[in-house]
Automatic annotation (TrEMBL):
PROSITE patterns in UniProt: HELICASE_ATP_BIND_1 (PS51192), HELICASE_CTER (PS51194)
Recorded name of the encoding gene: recG
The UniProt record lists the keyword Membrane: no
Stretch list, region Disordered: 514-548
EC number: 3.6.4.12
Molecular function in Gene Ontology: DNA helicase activity; hydrolase activity
Entry keyword set: ATP-binding, DNA damage, DNA repair, DNA-binding, Helicase, Hydrolase, Nucleotide-binding
Protein name from the UniProt record: ATP-dependent DNA helicase RecG
NCBIfam families cross-referenced by the UniProt entry: PRK10917.2-1
Domain Helicase ATP-binding span(s) in chain numbering: 288-462
InterPro entries in the cross-refs: DEAD/DEAH_box_helicase_dom, Helicase_ATP-bd, Helicase_C-like, NA-bd_OB-fold, NA-bd_OB_tRNA, P-loop_NTPase, RecG/Mfd, RecG_dom3_C
Lineage: Bacteria, Bacillati, Actinomycetota, Actinomycetes, Streptosporangiales
CDD domains xref list: DEXHc_RecG, RecG_wedge_OBF
Short name of any one Pfam family annotated for the protein: DEAD
Ranges of Polar residues composition bias in the record: 525-542
């Protein structure tokens, strides 16, 4: 009587269970059966050995070409070198010790097998040292593997499951465990309701698990995957539907527009006309704010689409209605910049208490971690008394001691920097009523992702940009193929500076005296992700082969000041600098007192200096696609044509270079976020896979399974509307509870 909740220990014994727990974090029968094969090898197929990447843990299908044994120098035992081939390329397997004779007898030339190990290089030849292996098919029949059943299987079936394996546990050892567990499995409860299975023509859970682990043919795999994806999608959508239902029970104060308020006067004084999209979004938000249902809205718009003005208009509407609004920025640099920008946009409207204030003006507050105690106290009093109608700030706003007289609206700039707790902390500051919530993001998100990840947010999109914007021309500068392009890049920068324009140079590291291991220091001033200057290559973790240390800000700035950019006014900006210094540098750059700013990704989001026209991104392959697009958005912010140069040592045809070419080809952020999503594991989007943790989405891909997710959402809504607590769906309810227990489930909602 085995069920999915049973510990593996009970079925496989202590030793095996311990290995599975340690190596793969698999503890229950369900964990193991949800560890799906990554792909299926066929006995006829050979792995393309040329494609192996140094340092990767691989499972390959190859044929033994030759073997050679020689004594170990100065020690007992010998070395067995086995060369295996895919018909074209070769790789060596090496075994050391006193028992290599055993392997020599197994691995005879002509034998085919699965070989698992880590790819390394020794004397310019690639090898797997001490690989684990499973021989296939040529009838040696002398018990080379532990399980005769497994041997028989691999003869009998064409499809050999290949599992995500680790150094400690080869794929076929996982397969053996799965085999044992499957044989003992009882009739297990199925989270997918009967009526859904019937209408979608999907098999039951037990059948699907058999088919995905032990397919007789490819069609079995497809059927099983479809069914398992459906389950993932439905469980997630039911959880989100329940949450939407719950959210509908709390109320907010309605903040309807008033005639002749600050908003009306702001609109009259605005130095430009709003774009059509800004109008549309503004109307939608104004309607939301006028209701007693708390607004939960995502405002998405490509970089430069003018989200700040839309948010500011919403904030003014709330102030007009007697409430307060906060604008929460992910970094100190951005908070300061927003404060400056709003001060300028509002003019006399934000000078309450000052001589030149407009009638019924409000006060614009600022709260950041780097303020002096006295400043901070003054700001806190102004917020608590209601004197500050709008308060801009960083995470410092979230602290318990910060209170408001009547908080009506929370605007979050750049959602991806904020987690669940931060949002919850802000909500509590509005007392019994929920504040309305507006989340701005410049990373356009495909519809499915918005629906899945931001399941309880409504979306409104700015799909145009203010007129007269020149598009940013983007070029890849390949330092290996065309080294002289780099000189031209610097010459171009000098020309721009000669015309009173400014230049950004972005590097992946801070550099200076830091060791490479310290490349991602936390920024003490805000504790925010954007200021950490974290190694951006984590965006494409696992795809990049080992490479030399990338450019650092400090070193490059020194080099340029003495070399190609000597005579220009250079400054550096990175997360290790004190907050005042960062702010002062940004100010001077914005004022045109600095020509070239050499920076880390601290400038990634939102920094707005219209006279900056050129950006060079060094080691651009170290950055993710969306991140490059964000960075590029820092130039071309006025009518000046922008230029973005992606400097890279990545060779043509490599995945890294393909990504850069994609960024150079299009300025459509929406398309690029799809490229990004396709390249990253979906789990990353949900915040889990990065750390190697299991995500509740294993098979479902947000981009490719759009239709399925859409249908699942409709089905989920129907189920939850009819039976909010899932009383008639106990197995589904259990599955929903299980994903809710995962602290990282839907990080971002
Ligand atoms: P983002 O959406 O990237 O946050 P911002 O809100 O920073 O963009 O706006 C970019 C720049 O465009 C700012 O300088 C802003 O004042 C300006 N801007 C916004 N809306 C308009 C408009 N309708 N016409 C002209 N300029 C605008
Ligand atoms: Mg912005």
């Amino acid at each position: 009587m085995t069920t999915l909740d049973d510990p593996l220990r009970a079925v496989l014994g202590d030793r095996t269970a311990t290995v599975l727990a340690d190596a793969l974090d698999l503890h229950t029968v369900g964990d193991l059966l949800r560890h799906y094969p990554r792909r299926y090898a066929t006995r006829g197929e050979l792995t393309d050995l040329d494609s192996l990447v140094e340092g990767e843990q691989v499972t390959i299908v190859a044929e033994v070409a030759s073997t050679r044994t020689r004594p170990l120098r100065g020690r007992r035992g010998s070395v067995l070198e086995v060369t295996v081939t895919d018909g074209t390329d070769r790789i060596d397997l090496t075994f050391f010790g006193t028992r290599v004779g055993y392997h020599a007898r197994q691995l005879r030339s002509g034998q085919r097998g699965l070989f698992a190990g880590r790819v390394s290089t020794y004397r310019n030849r690639r090898q797997l040292a001490h690989p684990d292996y499973l021989l296939l098919g040529s009838g040696n029949g002398d018990g080379t593997t532990d399980s005769p059943t497994e041997q028989a299987r691999s003869f009998a079936t064409e499809l050999i499951p290949v599992y995500p394996a680790t150094a400690k546990l080869a794929s076929w050892r996982i397969a053996q465990c799965v085999e044992i567990v499957l044989r003992q499995l009882d009739d297990i409860p199925d989270p997918l309701p009967e009526h859904v299975r019937a209408s979608e023509g999907l098999p039951g859970l037990r059948d699907a698990l058999y088919q995905i682990h032990r397919p007789a043919e490819q069609a079995d795999v497809a059927t099983a995957r479809q069914r398992l994806k459906w389950e993932e999608a439905l469980v997630l959508q039911v959880a989100l539907a329940q949450r939407r239902l719950q959210a509908a029970t709390v109320t907010a104060h309605a903040r309807a527009t008033v005639p002749d308020g600050l908003l009306a006067r702001f609109d009259q004084a605005l130095p430009f006309t709003l774009t059509a999209a800004q109008h549309r979004a503004g109307d939608t938000i104004a309607t939301d704010l006028s209701a007693t249902v708390p607004m939960h809205r995502l405002l998405q718009g490509d970089v430069g689409s003018g989200k700040t003005v839309v948010a500011l208009r919403a904030m003014l509407q709330v102030v007009d209605a007697g409430g307060q609004a906060v604008l929460l920025a992910p970094t100190e640099v951005l908070a300061q910049q927003h404060h400056r920008a709003l001060t300028q946009l509002l003019g006399p409207l934000a000078r309450a208490g000052q001589l030149d204030a407009a009638d019924r003006a409000t006060r614009l507050g600022l709260l950041t971690g780097s303020q002096s105690a006295a400043e901070r106290r003054r700001e806190m009093v102004a917020a608590a008394s209601g004197e500050s109608g709008i308060v801009v700030g960083t995470h410092a706003l979230l602290e318990d001691e910060v209170t408001f007289a009547d908080l009506g609206l929370v605007v979050v700039d750049e959602q991806h920097r904020f987690g669940v707790e931060q949002r919850a902390a802000l909500r509590t500051k509005a007392g019994d009523n929920r504040p309305h919530m507006l989340v701005m993001t410049a990373t356009p998100i495909p519809r499915t992702v918005a629906m899945t990840v931001y399941g309880d947010l409504d979306t409104v999109t700015l799909d145009d940009v203010p007129e007269g914007r020149a598009p940013v021309a983007t070029h890849v500068v390949p330092t290996l193929e065309k080294p002289h392009f780099l000189e031209r890049t610097y010459a171009r920068m000098r020309e721009e500076v000669a015309q009173q324009r400014q230049v950004y140079i972005v590097c992946p590291r801070i550099g200076g005296d830091e060791t490479p291991a310290e490349a991602a220091p936390a920024d003490g001033s805000t504790g925010s992700a954007a200021d950490t200057d974290g190694d951006p290559s984590q965006n494409s973790a696992g795809q990049e082969p080992h490479r030399a240390t990338p450019q650092g800000v400090v070193d490059l700035a020194d080099e340029l000041a003495e070399g190609p950019l000597s005579g220009l006014r250079l400054a550096v900006l990175h997360g290790r600098l004190p907050a005042e210094e960062k702010d002062a540098t940004m100010r001077r750059f914005a004022a045109g007192e600095i020509d070239v700013l050499v920076a880390t990704t601290v400038i990634e989001v939102g920094v707005d200096v219209p006279t900056a026209s050129v950006m060079a991104i060094m080691d651009a392959d170290r950055f993710g696609v969306s991140q490059l697009h964000q960075l590029r958005g820092r130039v071309g912010r006025s009518t000046l044509p922008g230029l973005c140069l992606l400097v890279t040592a990545a060779a043509t045809g490599t995945p890294a270079r393909d990504r850069l070419d994609a960024v150079a080809r299009t300025t459509n952020g929406f398309q690029l976020s799809r490229v990004d999503l396709l390249q990253r594991r979906e789990g990353d989007v949900l915040g889990a896979a990065q750390s190697g943790r299991r995500s509740s989405l294993r098979l479902l891909t947000l981009v490719e399974d759009e239709d399925l997710i859409t249908t699942a959402r409709q089905v989920a809504d129907r189920i939850v509307t009819a039976d909010p607590h899932l009383e008639t769906y106990p197995s589904l309810a259990a599955a929903v509870t299980a994903i809710q227990a995962d602290p990282e489930y839907l990080e971002k909602t």
